[in-house]
Amino acid sequence: xxxxxxxxxxxxxxxxxxTLFNQPKSLTCSHIFCKDCLQRILQTQPSRQTIKCPVCRQxxxxxxxxxxxxxxxxxxxxxxxxxxxxxxxxxxxxxxxKQPAVSYCQDCGKYMCESCEKGHKNWKLVSxxxxxxxxxxxxxxxxxxxxxxxxxxxxDDEEYFCTKxxxxxxxxxxxxxxxxxxxxxxxxxxxxxxxxxxxxxxQDRAKSQKTAIGNHIDFIKTxxxxxxxxxxxLNDDIDxxxxxxxxx
Length: 248
Fold this sequence. Notes:
By secondary structure, the protein is α+β, with helices and mostly antiparallel strands. It has seven helices and ten strands.
């Protein structure tokens, strides 16, 4: 069950609509999106013969301007079908024995069991969060939302990120409050992808430093052992010299 949750939450959600893939299509850059999401993006392209990936911005030719002719990702489609037949587990519990999830918080992005759901309702800081039943999610009645709603524009998702203000914003906020000089607006998906890359670089650097520190520690241990052995030999020489002097 833990494996299922990892697959469903990390690998099987469309970066655009943030729900399980529906007719997943692969672009030449290997990023995957729902067919309908790509169709909407294509409508915004000037030529409507190529589509620009929302994640990496690489262009993919669209045969005859028809998104349905793009390659269908069969393995992902099969996994989505499998996921829809199973129930995810609670991602809030800290115990090893995960409980089946009965609800999902659209604001936290967390699955909750009955116990965690009660605690979530009683916590005043998240009392206004939108919690939906897992039965509605699995049936497709309610899609999983991975973007918070804008506080100033409740009907719009915070799909963008302002690098100067360091906050997620909706498209309307971007046009109204973030057009001044110095403000740089990125798509939230691209910003999060950059964050993942930076975290990966930091992890690699930390791993490299950990290895270097381990080598230094091993060197120090070796030097300490050599010094200890040298002191032992010197003490033996001193004792031997003293005995010889006493005999003389």
